Amino acid sequence: MRFIRELDQMIAYEPGQPLELVMRRFGLSEVVKLASNELPVPPFPEVQEAIIAAIDGLNRYPDGHCTDLRAAIAAHYGRDGEEVVIGNGSCELLMLIGDAVLERGDELVFAAPSFTVYEDISRRHGAAAVRVPTVDFVHDLDAMADAVTARTKLLIVCNPNNPTGTYVPVADVQELVDRVPDDVLVIIDEAYNEFVSAPDAQDSLELQTTHENVVVLRTFSKIYGLCGLRVGYGLGAPALKEALDKLRQPFNVNRLAQVAAIEALKHQDKVRARAAANAEVRAYMAARLAARGRATVPSEANFMLVDVRGLSVPPEQVFEALLAKGVIVRDGHALGCPGWARVSVGTRAETDFFLAKLAELEPGAGPLSEGRRS
Questions:
Q1: 133-159 residue pLDDT tens
Q2: What is the pTM of this model?
Q3: Measuring CA to CA, how many Å separate 84 from each of 65, 202, 203, 234?
Q4: What is the CATH number of the domain that holds 209?
């Protein structure tokens, strides 16, 4: 068989390991998954009820235009429905945008480290990935603006940034956008926006209305707890929706995802409560680690980077050592953050479990033992 040559440069995405698989592999009775930035609680009860009520209609194709969901998102943000694009998760929208704008020899500018899918988008089109190093794990927006050339077609700002959790003020993002030529599409990837406590968290939406070359991406996967249904959306110029409609597969967002997202959007009081709970546990975890002298990167998301250097095992072995103890985290080396682990914010109980197992890897905690597994 003959495949496109770009595949030689691509690596398949490796998701976090399932709980059940880790339990079987290590013979554990308790495992916590803090690897994939998932919400540790299920969807709102009202959303679950809406999903159950929609099951009888699964013998029919979903609305291919996501008419009601686009209308609900448009009303929520005071927009027109033609300014809303819907995808099978915001990842699909990222890929579709790449399909729409990138050709061989073009350039895609993004921070390093940042979301690994950005690299894949450039590679699949034979475009050059222009990686701009972060400074203290924060986007260097001036350097990103300086990196734009006549070949640049796409620039992505992940805010808060994955995997670092760091946040840049929207006023600074606007300065970047103002320096970028109008023919460069700027994606502001805000998958974790609802967790941000900064007062300017919604200002990117106003920025987008004044710049046709800007699109803001968000998702129902994170704070709404709908990872398993895969539905994301973007707010941008109507021309973007027209372009992506030509590229997306028919019926790209399933019926249950549409129903669930429409219902979830109605419960903003519960969204705020979840954001507050996340911030509380996030601060608790950072404080507990700091008390041990273990550094973290300040985060505005539902995860944080934890320094895993100086433990009783080398940093590159911490992931496997924690896995054997029943804690699934994300190995920072694979994310461009060697010496760190990305740890999702779980429940208080899950966080305490992680802290206890990490403590067992501290120097002087005693020898690692198979019998100490939970």
A1: 999 999 999 999 999 999 999 999 999
A2: 0.93
A3: 11, 16, 17, 6
A4: 3.40.640.10
